Amino acid sequence: MNTQTCSPARCASCHYYEIEGRRGGSCHLLGVPVRGSWNACSMSYRTFTQPPEPPHYQPTLSPVGAGV
């Protein structure tokens, strides 16, 4: 089993989950309250691994007047 593609089964096992109280918590990725017992969403990521970084925008520059 590849740990890179294996997602957690519950919100409580997700990297973005933060417990708040006895039964609930919050998802930092979505910014919403969730329960730890809920099934994890498709964007979940394991707790002890680093989530993938979003791609950085790198504009392509061309010299001024190059096409003239």
TrEMBL record:
Top-level lineage group: Bacteria
Name of the protein described by the UniProt record: Uncharacterized protein
Organism: Planktothricoides sp. SpSt-374
